[in-house]
Each structure stands twice: as C-alpha cells, then as structure tokens.
Amino acid sequence: MAEYTDAHCDGAVEDMPELSDGDDDGDEEQWQCMDEEEEDSQPVTCLFCDRLLGSVSATLQHCTADHQVNLVDVIRKHRLDDYGYIKMINFIRSTKCDASCLTGSPDAPLPWESEDFLRPVLQDDPLLQTDPEELCDAEVSSPSACPSSGAESHHALLQRAQAAEQRACRSEEALARAMDDLHKLKLLAQGLVLNAETSRSGNLGTVAELRDDEDEAYFSSYGHYGIHEEMLKDKVRTESYRDFMYRNPDVFRDKVVLDVGCGTGILSMFAARAGAKKVIAVDQSEIIYQAMDIVRSNQLEDKITLIKGRIEDINLPVEKVDIIISEWMGYFLLFESMLDSVLYARDRYLADGGSVYPDLCNISLAAVGDTQKHQDRIAFWDDVYGFNMACMKKAVIPEAAVEVVKADTLISEPTVIQTIDCNRVCLSELEFASDFCLKITDTTDCTAIVGYFDIFFDKDCSNKVMFSTGPQVTKTHWKQTVFLLETPVSVQAGEELQGKITVRKNKKDPRSLLVTFDLRDRKQTYSLQ
C-alpha cells in the first residue's frame, strides 16, 4: 500500500519556509498611511452647510474659515476619544446645530452623550473614518498651522516630501517581502502536490499511475499512421527484431509470447512465424484496430490475440507468458518511459525461466566538436534580422536536440554510462547518476555531449543480434540526442574530460526526462519532452 504523507507531520513542518514577519510595525504604519491617503481623497459634505469638499482636510479648513469652528480645537477641548468624536460628528449632522453648541464649558455635559449618536447619519462618511488623534497630530505638522515664514513653510514641505519618500521605500520593501513569501509558499505547495502524486504510486511507478486523461496525448500520438510507417521503414530496428526471432526459433517454439505496445503487430507476426504457440498483443492506441485487420489479412488470427488497453489496466487471458517482446525504446533510450510498462508486465506475467527481449541495453556518451552547429544554434540569436534576441539562448540551451550527428564531429572515444538488464532491473534503477570519463581524441573545443544507445538480443540465443543508434553506424529513426553546451570547453588530445550525468523522470510528466550534466564546474539540466 502506498503511504500518504500527512501535511501536518513533522517533516512538513520542517519544510515550511521562513516567511517575513507579518506584524512588522513599519509595514502596518505604511498601509495605514496609504489608507489615510485614500480616505483623504474622498469627497466630504460640510457639517454646517451643503457644500461638498474634496477631502477631510479641506473640510476642516472650510469649517474653520467659513463657520468659525475648529474641530481639532473642539476635540482637544473636550478630550474626545474615538467614540466621543463619532458621536459629535453624527450629532452635528443630525441636529444641524450651530457653532455655539460646540463651544460650551469643558465641564458641562456634552449634548452628544447619547449612544444614539453612534449611528451614522451619512453612509460611508469620510469624517467617521478618520482618527481624531491623527487629525490633531496632522494640524501640528501642517504648514498651514504655522504660516510664520516662507522658509518655515518650505522646510515643512520638504519634511513631508521626505516622509512620503520614506513611506514609498517601506512600501516597496514590504511588497518585495510579500512577493518573496508568495514564491516560497508556491514552491512549498508544488512540493506537497508532487510528493502526494508520487507517493500514491506504491510499487506500480509513476507511469502506471497516470490516469487515462493524463496519458491520452502519448497514446494518441501512436494512433497516427506516419509514426508507424517511419518505424517500419527503419531497417536497422525492424530487421534486428526479425533476425533475432527468425534466427533463434528454439527460443520461440511452442512458447506463449506477450507483445507490449504492439502497434501494427509486426513483432507479434514475427513471433508467430518463428514458432510461437500463442501471441497476445496489447496496445492502447487506435492503431490496434488496423493491427487486427493486418493479422486477419495474414491468416494469423488463430495464433495472435489482440487486446486494446494499457497493460497496467487489463487482464490477460493467461496467467503467465514465456516471452515478452517489445520495442519500447525512446530517444536517449528512456524517453517516454515505456520500459516501465514492460517491467510491470514482466513482474506480473513472466513465468519463471522466461525472458524479456531485447534483454540488454547500453547508454553511451561521446564529446562533440562542431563549432558551426554551435554557432547556428546559439550565436544565431545575437542578430536575428537586425534584432537582438540573445535572451532566447537561455531557453534554447536546456532543450536537448534529437538529430543526426556527423561521425567526423566526434572528438572523443565513446563511454558507456549505464547498462540495463531488462530481466533484472528495478523500476527505481531507471533513474540514476553516473560519473563518466571521455578520452579526447582531438585538440579543439567541445561544443556538445551526444548520447545514444545499443540494443542486444542475447539471453539463450545461439545467434545473437544487436544494433546501435550511434553516430558511427547506419542512422535510425532514434537519431542521437545532443546536449549543447552553453559555452564550449577547450580540450586537448589525450585528455580525459570528466563529468557526471544524472537522469531522472520529470515529476510533472513522467514520460519526459530531465538530464543534468556536471562538467568542468558547470551544471546544466536538459529536458527531453
């Protein structure tokens, strides 16, 4: 059973990013100032007439000049708190009183003592949204309160400008901290989601756990005829499978064979002609309907049974099979992660003593020195029809290229970085890290690392068959995978170029690959998708 991680467990707490202090007094003060500025810009109806003023401060000045009532003096005289101030404003608005009502003795009872005056007379009255204490402070610092000289007025304006600048700086700092916190939380959320998705898989693996809608694009791509025509016309690929089966009939005689991802059914028909007693062909893509017609057209329907569906989702009509054949290889061998499905079939259906074919695979690397190709792909962006598009380099470099590499551009001997025995390998071993050493054969610049694979039909075969997808031999539809270096590396003939490669599935799309190279203190991750 898959183990689910509780988001409230200790591990989750330890992974919680450290966020900025949300109680920062400076930030609170800044937001408060911004709110004040917003409120101060709202139109306000005068307390003693019907005139509409542009702001709270303009209203206070109007009351002082036209009605001889300084509300700030009234607040101070009666020592009004927030509630007292609110009652006073609502009292004036509701009773339409004159100024004399506000200038009584400080010791006399206030005419607005009743709790009824807490109810606003005007909805969203800006005067009620104003702090009386700050009104008093604002009058002290206002240049209009101290119009003694031009120099003092200029000094007051300068102080206000400096204060505004400081508030702006604090706002920018607060916004930067908030954006940083948001980024940290986003990364945390992504990690929790990805961990939850990967933890659900248990022993099946990420590909087996993909829903139909998540995997639809992959299988749909194999429903088009063009891709099957390309694979069938790849003689290196197709004839190697044919020769393996036809030249080793003892391996297939009277055996039950499972073909995982059968496509047009070509491997199933090879197996039937090689002597298999029964062949079960499985494919999820729409091409299987053509495969059914092809099998009938060749009078092999008595030996070959075709089933539509993913191998992880269906039940075979037999408990065990003797042989599993599959052409599962993708670019750089592991792209598309179809080997995951073959291993699932092996662990569930392969009988003791049975075998998966092909049974052995190698992944190899070599150094490339192709300055022209590097310039075409990288320097090209410096001047595109007279425009600088150099920023595109950062996007181009991480995309591994699938192309044919000229053999004369190889500048090192190849080295094998991983060998896979399909009868023994575990799913977890398909993600790996490996140190490598490339023996340089030419003094030049290394502009890229090229990757390719070799395939072997070996176990129990009296006539062993293999083929390579390397640059030195006949090209295949897999071509080679090129990892372009952002900056070429100078190398000398006889030198050993050492590095490390890490290959892993992309958690967001387990059929794609992420390949990371550590080379000469430089690290670059490439995607195959």
Compact description:
The chain is an alpha+beta fold and 529 residues long.
Task: Please describe what this structure looks like.
This protein has 529 residues and is of the alpha+beta class. It contains 16 helices and 17 strands. It has helices spanning 10-15, 25-40, 56-67, 71-77, 82-95, 132-141, 150-199, 212-221, 225-233, 235-246, 249-252, 266-273, 287-297, 338-349, 371-377, 393-396, and strands at 44-45, 52-53, 256-260, 278-283, 304-308, 321-325, 350-357, 360-368, 401-403, 415-421, 432-439, 444-457, 465-468, 480-491, 496-506, 509-519, 522-528. The strands form 4 sheets. Strands 8, 9, 10, 12, 13 and 14 form a 6-stranded antiparallel beta sheet that branches. It has a 5-stranded parallel beta sheet with strand order 5-4-3-6-7, with helices on both faces. Strands 11-15-16-17 form a 4-stranded antiparallel beta sheet, with no helix packed on it. Helix 2 crosses helix 7, helix 4 (71-77) crosses helix 6 and helix 10 packs parallel to helix 12.
Keywords:
529 residues; alpha+beta; 6-stranded antiparallel β-sheet; elongated
Strand content is: 15-25%
Structural class: alpha+beta
Q: Rg, please?
A: 39 Å
Outline, from the CA principal axes?
Answer: elongated
User: What share of residues is helical?
Assistant: 25-40%
- Span from first to last CA? 30 Å
What's the tally of helices? 16
What is the overall pLDDT average? 84
For the largest beta-sheet, the strand count, sense and barrel status come to: 6 strands, antiparallel
**What is the count of β-strands?**
17
Regions with little confidence, pLDDT below 50 for 5+ residues? 1-14, 143-148, 196-204
